[in-house]
Structures are given as C-alpha cells and as structure tokens.
Input
Amino acid sequence: MAKKVLVIDDEPEMLNLIRYTLEKAGYEISTCDNGRQAWDLIVKTNPDLLILDVMLPGIDGYSLQIKISQNEATRNIPIIVLTALEPSKTLFQKFAQVRGFMTKPFKTDALVEAVEKAIGRPTGAGAS
Output
C-alpha cells in the first residue's frame, strides 16, 4: 500500500505541482486548499505525512500545527512545513513532528528528498 501524503496549500498551482511530483515518485496524494477543511481531512484520511503551508485561509498553518500536536490521534504524524516566509521556520522548530521545511519556490527533487527523509520511500509493487 502506498504511503499517504496530505498536502495543505491554498495555491492550486502549488497543489498540482506537489501532487504530480509525489505521485510520480510513488506516493498517494490527497490535497486540501484551506485550514478549516484540513482538520477533518487529517482525521478522516490518517496520512503518513502532512505537507503544510503556513499562510492558509480559515485556519493558518501554525494554528493547525498546534491543534495537530495537541491531539492524541494526530500528534505523531510527521510534517513538512511549506512557506514563502523563511522567518516563519522559527515558529515551527519547537514541534518534534516537524521533519522539514520547504521554502517556496523549491526544487521538486528537494521535495521528494524531504518526503523520503520524513517517511521513507514509497512501497512499490511486490514490496512488503
């Protein structure tokens, strides 16, 4: 079974780029474009990894991160923070589940590398 990644970002082009890149690498991708719907989707899909944008409509990424870290069911989900604001990295460094930071714009191979580092390579056909 493929490893599940939930991408939360409000930019359609960014969602499409990440979806294409990670699906090509063998991951199963779900997307969400706002912070309000993200929580329900996190609980419903139980992803292996979250890629979380900082600036989101509804609930911002930092507030969502706090909620995720305080919930027993979600506190161990690894997260890669995605941001156009380099200084916002310092806000997230205190969370153990944050496994990486990607500053927009980023190279797609760096994204795949960060995901592999956080949750390992996807399981392919015949792998166990």
About this structure: The first helix runs from residue 12 to 24. Helices lie at 12-24, 35-45, 61-70, 89-92, 108-119. The two ends are 9 Å apart (CA to CA). The mean pLDDT is 92.
